[in-house]
Amino acid sequence: MTDQEPDNAPKGKSSRNSMMGAGIALGVGVGTAMGVSLDNIAMGVGLGLAMGIAFGAAFSAHRGKAKDVDGD
Q1: Is 60 a residue whose pLDDT tops 70?
Q2: Where exactly are the structural domains of the chain?
């Protein structure tokens, strides 16, 4: 029961949150790699976090539009 949404939860909410989380994780990973290569890890993590939030929001919006087009 822990991995299921409650019956009263809005549909698609957990997938949007997971896309945001995936975007943040990828952004921080890429940012850390950039920071290591530029010898400034703190700047890389900050930039990666910002990029991750932006990409996560874009992925969530794109996924929401795709569901609307399909009629689900």
Answers
A1: yes
A2: 18-70
